[in-house]
Specification:
The chain has one domain. The chain contains 13 helices and four strands. About 6% of the residues have low confidence.
């Protein structure tokens, strides 16, 4: 047991730069979401309105849509309809990117004295089109990460302001169970990841492990196991055949994390800020006001997610694909509960919900 622990630690040391880089993107994505949250924290911006924030039926609808989208993408990939996959995903990403970029264009134009609804909208649209064009023409890892971080921040705000923490936690638990099943049992999530890597789409974050790494040259076949050897291969030759087929070099070049692994802990952070009591000193934000109790719980939730991330990396360091949500969501939920009991008390942590 001791030897195995030392081996894992050594593997993590060898990959510490990419792991720290991924953790940095995790923090920045959620941090941007926190920064822009006050601008969207209004009833009109909530996905299902003010009344929908406590209705669990909408959470089940969201989970169902995730499942349908996943299987639809895999079906299209198997049919060779990559152009259709790219079109659907790019449209969804563009909408989320616009949502995340708009607050920054508003702030910059306000400082410059040119802020009007038309100027803000046109500027945000131009930046969004520019980002998606760059992604389509030159999807190198730093382009994918830049767009992915902004898209992720937009999504966590859209979902975080739409549901109270109780519903978000239920969503996270169900999604973690689904993620575990999709990676270890059905394995279709690995097929989806390979599809997205092959199409160079920013539904994941990429942390290179080696200098000179190019995501443009990365093939989308690193998550799944190689196929079994043909029956005519002699038993004595199977080990050599298997070693030749395993994509060892490609799997060591970069660390990959699905954007959902950031979005789920992040949306609990945003939900805490949006729905917990306005207690404690006010904290200034250019788009509105935070309260100290909300920020304490938000930071506690983020720290919990990072603890889950460190645990996740002990498995990832060994080179095996792992479902991120069980550990990341579990850590974030635990961080929410611990910091919430301290900041607002247990009675305020869980809100009353209904099915419809």
């Amino acid at each position: 047991m001791s030897d195995r622990s030392e081996s894992v630690i050594e593997l993590m040391k060898d990959q510490w730069e990419s792991m720290v880089g991924m953790a940095g993107m995790f923090i920045v994505t959620i941090g941007i979401g926190i920064f822009i949250q006050p601008l969207y924290d209004v009833p009109e911006a909530r996905a299902f309105g003010e009344e929908g924030t406590t209705k669990s039926g909408f959470i089940l609808f969201e989970l169902l849509m995730i499942g349908i989208f996943t299987f639809a993408i895999i079906w299209l990939a198997r049919k060779g309809l990559d152009y259709l996959i790219k079109g659907i995903v790019m449209l969804a990403l563009g909408l989320s990117l616009f949502y995340a970029v708009q607050p920054f264009t508003l702030l910059i134009l306000f400082i410059l004295g040119f802020a009007t609804p038309a100027s803000v909208g046109i500027s945000a649209l131009a930046i969004t089109i520019g980002g998606m064009t760059a992604l389509n023409r030159y999807p190198e890892w730093w382009v994918v990460n830049s767009v992915g971080v902004m898209v992720g921040s937009g999504v966590i705000v859209m979902i975080g302001i739409s549901f109270v923490p109780t519903l978000v936690i239920i969503f996270m638990i169900l999604a973690a169970i689904y993620d575990y099943w999709a990676v270890h049992k059905s394995k279709h999530m690995l097929e989806l990841a390979d599809t997205m890597i092959g199409l160079k789409l920013p539904v994941l974050l990429v942390a290179p492990k080696e200098k000179g790494y190019s995501f443009l040259e990365q093939e989308g076949d690193i998550m799944q196991d190689p196929p079994p050897p043909p029956t005519e291969v002699m038993e004595a030759e199977i080990d050599d055949w298997w070693d030749d087929k395993k994509p060892k070099k490609k799997s060591r070049d970069a660390l990959f994390m699905g954007l959902g692994d950031v979005i789920f802990p992040g949306m609990l952070v945003i939900s805490a800020i949006s729905f917990l009591p306005d207690w404690g000193p006010e904290i200034w934000n250019p788009y509105g006001t935070f309260y100290m109790a909300q920020i304490v719980v938000a930071i506690g939730t983020l720290i919990g997610g990072l603890v889950g991330y460190v645990l996740l990396m002990t498995f990832v360091a060994q080179g095996n694909p792992q479902p991120g949500l069980p550990l990341l969501n579990g850590g974030a939920i635990l961080g929410y509960i611990i910091s919430g009991i301290y900041a607002v008390g247990p009675a305020q942590l869980f809100q009353a919900i209904t099915f419809l």
